[in-house]
Amino acid sequence: MVSPESQAMVKHAGLRSSRASLCFSDGCLFLGGVLLALLLVWSFSSFAYPPSPLQTLASSSAVAGEAKPECASAAAPPRDAEESGNFYDDPELSYSMERPMTGWDEKRREWLRQHPSLASGGSRERVLLVTGSQPSPCKNKIGDHLLLRLFKNKVDYCRLHGCDVFYNNVLLQPQMFSFWAKYPVVRAAMLAHPEAEWIWWVDSDALFTDMDFELPFDRYKDHNLVVHGWTNLIYEKKSWTSINAGVFLIRNCQWSMDFMDVWAGTGPQTPEYERWGNILRSTFADKLFPESDDQSALVYLLLTQKDRYGDKIYVENEYYFEGYWEGIVGTLPNITRDYEDLDRQGPQALRRRHAEKVSKYYASRRAEAEAAAAAPQKRPFVTHFTGCQPCSGDHNQMYSGESCWNGMVKALNFADNQVLRRYGYVRPDLMDTAVVKPIPFDYPAGGGGGGG
Predict the structure, then answer these.
(1) With 70 as the cut, is the pLDDT of residue 3 above it?
(2) In terms of DSSP H, where are the helices of 162-253?
C-alpha cells in the first residue's frame, strides 16, 4: 500500500519529468530549425556562388593524388640502358678507316638491344643524311651563299621526311682528299649513329627537287649499297660514267664496312694510288684524267668482282636518284605549270591548306592524282650539278659558270617553292630569289601562278 507521502513524491517526480521532456523537445525543435535554416542558406549560396574552377581542380587533384599520379601513361615505353657497357667502351675502337672494323653487326645489334626506342621499326627506316664542304671559305664570291642554300634544301627535305642530318666541313683523314674525302665521314657516321639503318651521302652540289618523294626502301631490302646508273653502260660499254658516286645509300652493317675498305684501297692514302690510276684509265676508254677516283673504282669492282659484290649493289635507274642538271633545269618551268594544272583540275585535297607535319598525307594524294592523270613530266627527285663547283668557282669547260650558277638558283627556287607553299607564299619567278607573293585560298584554282 502506497502512502500519501509516496504518492505525493511520485506525482512531484512525474511533474519534473514531464517538464524536462517538454524542455528537451523544445530544444530539439529549436536546434532543428537552426540547422534547417543553415541548410537552406548553404543551398542557396551554392547556386548563387558555385565553386571556382581552381577549387574544383584542387579538390580533384587531391583525390587523384591519393589514388595514382595524374597523367600516368598507360604503357611506359621501353627504357634505354645507356649505363650498360657496349662497343663505345672498347679502348681499341677507331673511327678512322685506317683500322678495319670487325664484328660490327653484333656490336650494333647489342647497342640497339640496349636502346630499343631508337631501333628502326615497321615501315620506318632510320636514315642519316651526310653531306659537307671544304674547311675554308669559298673562292667563288657567291659560293658560300650557294652552299648555304644547298644545305637548307637538304634540311628542309629531312624535316619533311624525318631523317637526321650531319654536315661535315673538315677533312677527317687529310690524305683522303677530293672525291675520297666522303668515305672517312661515312665510316665515322656509321659508328656515331648505330641507330641509323642507312647512311645517305649527298654531295654538296646536289639538291632535292621533289620535296614529296620518298625513297622506296622495300626495293632495297636485300641490298647494301644503292647508286644511280645503268647496268648496260657498266657491263657492256664499260663507261666510268655508267654510275654516279656523288649520291649513294649504304647500309650500316659489316658488309659495308668491308666493302668501303676495299673501295678506298684504290684511294690516295695508299701507296698503290698511282698504279690504280693507270689501271682505271686503261680499263675505261672514256676516262680522260689519270687519277684514281671513287666512281671509276666502283665500276671496276662491279666489272671484276660482280659475283662477290654485285648481288648487294642496287643500280637504280627507275627514277632520278640523282639526275644530271643540264638536262633538267630547262624543264623546270614546264614541270611547274604541269603541277599547277594537276592541282587545279584534281581533287580539292591537292589545294587544301594544311600543317607541314601532315605533308605526307597530301603527298600521297598528289601521287595518286599523278598516276591517274599520267602526268607527262614528274619532278626530278635529286638534281646533281655534276661538273659545277660552286665553292671554288671551277666548272667543266663544256658549259659556262653562269649556266651553272643560274641553273642552281632556278633549281633551288623550284624546290623552295614546294616548301614555301606550306607557309602561304610562293616565288612567281624562279630566277628571282628575293620576291615572293602570298598565295590565295584554293590556289591555284583560286587564281595566280607561281614558279614559271
Answers:
(1) no
(2) 182-192, 231-235
Taking only the tens place, the pLDDT of each residue in 337-355 is 999 999 999 999 999 999 9
* Of 365, 370, 361, 369, nearest in space to 319 by CA: 370
Residue 246 inside a domain? The answer is yes
In a domain, 85, yes or no: no
**Cell numbers representing residue 53 in the block:** 574552377
List of residues 6+ apart from 354 with CB closer than 8 A: 361, 362, 422
Number of other residues whose CB lies within 10 A of the CB of residue 326:
18
Residue-number span of the structural domain to which 385 is assigned? 327-438
Percent of the residues in the chain that have a pLDDT greater than 90, as a whole number: 74
Q: What is the DSSP string of 272-325?
A: THHHHHHHHHHH-TT--S-S--HHHHHHHHHHH-HHHHGGGEEEE-SS-SSEEG
Counting every residue written for the chain, the total comes to: 452
Q: What is the pLDDT of residues 47-67, one digit of tens each?
A: 444 444 334 434 444 444 444
- Choosing from 255, 290, 318, the residue where a domain stops is 318
- CA angle, residues 202, 204, 208, in degrees to nearest 5: 60
CA-based nearest residue to 346, from 209, 443, 424? 443
Angular region, 374: left φ>0, alpha ψ -120 to 50, beta rest: left
Whole-number Cα distances in Å, 272 to 44, 168, 291, 293: 98, 27, 11, 13
User: Where residue 246 sits, what CATH number does that domain have?
Assistant: 3.90.550
Judge if 427 and 298 occupy the same domain: no
In a domain, 367, yes or no: yes
Domain count along the chain: 2
* Nearest CA-CA partner of 412 in 439, 393, 443, 390: 390
The 10s digit of each residue's pLDDT in 366-421 is 999 988 887 668 999 999 999 999 999 998 888 888 899 999 999 999 999 999 99
